[in-house]
Design brief:
single chain, about 230 residues, alpha+beta, Nuclear Transport Factor 2, Chain: A, 2 domains, six-stranded antiparallel β-sheet, disordered C terminus
Length: about 230
């Protein structure tokens, strides 16, 4: 009888061990399931624009070339007025608001109100483009200055053309020093995870690579606000 009793005791101990092991496996599965559930479903990885050569980067780092491309894209879209500056500028401020910090939105809204009150927007058509030879690839270190892993200063050398009807009323070559910050708060509306924080300093007129004669006539002047 003692032999059977010992076997029963051993079986009970083995069953207890199996129960403890199963409980431990269940606990591990719950922890892993919680980690999987809380993991981000999307990751933004910044890939250099030039894909002819390989690149190894940490996924959370934003390379300077991506910062420059984002800044130029948003700034160009902001200042694209295809039909009427009074309507287009206001619409651009609304559409691009996820790519601007709140303080920058307030600043640009005041700029819009000022330009509108002085008649600089009425029936104006505007477009800006990068001055040839003054893009990121020509001098990367001068175009993007890294302040921290969340802050950058981007310098854009831009040519701005404005028309009233078919008449060109302004051509200005302007250097914009812009602050850019990391703002990964709304991936649905801003997949870049960056935001423009307006000017680091006042925009400056720069000399034209090749002097051009001023536009004749028109409703504006070469001295208009950049």
């Amino acid at each position: 009888m003692s032999r059977f009793k010992n076997e029963i005791v051993q079986l009970q101990a083995h069953i207890k061990t199996l129960r403890i092991g199963a409980s431990a496996l269940l606990l591990i599965a719950l922890v892993m399931g919680g980690g999987w559930w809380s993991a981000p479903r999307d990751l933004t990885i910044h890939v250099p624009p030039d894909l002819r050569s390989g690149s190894t980067r940490k996924w959370w780092e934003v390379p300077p070339e991506s910062v420059y491309a984002f800044t130029f894209y948003v700034w160009q879209q902001l200042h694209r007025w295809p039909t009427n500056g009074e309507d287009d500028y206001a619409r651009n401020l609304h559409v691009l608001s996820p790519h601007l910090t709140p303080s920058c939105q307030t600043f640009l809204k005041a700029d819009y109100d000022y330009r509108r009150s002085t008649g600089e927007l009425r029936q104006r058509v505007r477009g800006i483009y990068e001055i040839p030879g003054r893009g990121y690839g020509d001098n990367p270190t001068a175009r993007v200055r890294t302040v921290s892993d969340r802050d950058w200063i981007v310098t854009l050398d831009i040519s701005a053309d404005e028309y009233h009807g078919s008449e060109q009323v302004k051509r200005a070559l302007v250097r914009y020093p812009l602050k850019v910050v990391r703002a990964d708060v709304d991936p649905a509306r801003n997949p870049f995870g960056l935001a423009i924080n307006c000017y680091e300093g006042a925009p400056q007129r720069i000399a034209a690579p090749n002097p051009e004669p001023p536009a004749r006539g028109g409703l504006g002047t070469q001295g208009d606000t950049p």
